[in-house]
Design a protein that fits this description.
This protein has helices at 17-42, 46-63, 79-89, 92-101, 106-133, 135-141, 144-167, 183-205, 214-233, 243-247, 271-277, 281-305, 317-334, 343-352, and strands at 72-74, 172-173, 176-177, 252-253, 259-260, 339-341. By secondary structure, the chain is mainly alpha-helical. It starts with 16 loop residues before the first helix and ends in a 6-residue tail after the last helix.
Length: 358
């Protein structure tokens, strides 16, 4: 096994500033695609979703006492519930506008926000139960056979989305919607393969600090490939921000091309959202539970190599669930989708062997 002298186990270790920024940037790049994909599928504002994710992550770190190195991102578990809400509560004109622009009308987002905020209470209640009776009680209801299966089902369910994103199917490029078999899809596939293969090569063969940045270096390599296609072939594969998104901005400097605030909206009471969205939080509990067990295994694996004592991450499961619930409320209040801690986050830490909370 490759030994990395820069490995950081947990919250009690902090990399020097330069490395810290590189590790953090790598995490942002890895979390970014899935976080905005939820917004693109549901019709939430992308800029608001990113802002809510960042704000909620900071809240999560503080709520959990800076002991759990997990990122709070948009949850895929709520996709069907939010889409159903839009079709049920939206007028014919609103649904048509959503289908045309890919962005939900503010009124529908506000109703979804109410359901998301209420779903936070479910996670908080689960967290308080775990804190009161201990994580071993939750194991009786959520054994490894369940939490592991849930994680596998989530991954397999999203495999189709991953392949579509890999080919750019359905994306708007230069005003053209990418279709299977088109030249855009072929070029998109080339960039995807360059990114994937280079990331694997970097992870396998680089040493020292660079060995801990394979995902960041892989994405940069993919960007170089896309830039070469643009400058040499004249084909622009980079997406443009929809005009509707900029128009909905809460405030912008001039025309907004330099600086614009996200499109913040306030929650609005909806019984449909309460019934349809609030219970979905139950589905994220076994996911979060599985993540804590995974995290404990990875962290203690590194701690053992470094001669450190064991870290009791599972003992923090109650705090993790409470943090998830409060973060749902924070995200829902400003106009972002419901979220959860991310398996991509854990995978990145496992690959790079960097588990530092900072």
């Amino acid at each position: 096994r490759r030994q990395c002298t820069q490995t950081v186990s947990q919250s009690d270790e902090r990399p020097e500033f330069g490395k810290l920024m590189l590790y953090a940037l790598q995490q942002v790049i890895v979390m970014f695609p899935a976080t905005i994909t939820v917004a693109l599928i549901t019709g939430f504002q992308v800029s608001t979703t990113i802002f809510a994710s960042g704000l909620a992550t900071l809240c999560f770190i503080l709520i959990t006492g800076k002991k759990i190195p997990l990122y709070y991102g948009s949850s895929f578990a709520y996709l069907s519930a939010i889409s159903s809400l839009a079709l049920t509560e939206g007028s014919a004109e609103q649904i048509a506008a959503w289908q045309a622009s890919g962005i939900l009308p503010a009124e529908i987002i506000s109703k979804a926000q109410f359901g998301i905020i209420m779903s936070g209470f479910v996670s908080i209640a689960a967290g308080l139960i775990v804190k009161k009776f201990g994580p071993e009680k939750i194991e009786k209801f959520l054994p490894a056979s369940i939490t592991g299966s849930v994680s596998m089902v989530i991954g397999l369910t999203l495999a189709g989305n991953a392949m579509s994103d890999f080919l750019g199917i359905g994306s708007s490029v230069g005003g053209t919607v990418v279709e299977a078999g088109s030249s855009y899809a072929t070029l998109w596939l080339i960039v995807g393969l360059v990114t994937l293969i280079s990331t694997c090569i970097y992870a396998r063969y680089l040493k020292g600090l660079l060995a801990q940045l394979p995902l960041l270096l892989g994405v940069l390599t993919g960007c170089v490939a896309a830039a070469l296609i643009y400058f040499v072939g004249g084909v622009n594969l980079f997406r443009a921000m929809p005009a509707e998104a900029l128009a909905a901005s809460t405030w912008k400097l001039g025309d907004g091309s330099i600086f614009a605030l996200p499109a913040f909206t306030l929650p609005k009471f909806s019984m449909t959202a309460l019934i349809g969205i609030m219970p979905i939080a139950i589905a994220t509990i076994p996911e979060s539970t599985a993540h804590m067990y995974q995290l404990e295994i990875y962290i203690n694996d590194v701690a053992k190599e470094k001669g450190k004592g064991k870290y009791d991450m599972v003992g923090l499961l109650g705090n993790n669930l409470v943090g998830d619930g409060i973060c749902d409320m924070v995200s829902g209040f400003v106009g972002g989708p419901a979220g959860t801690n991310y398996g991509e986050n854990i995978s990145t830490m496992a690959i790079t062997r960097v588990f530092s909370v900072p």
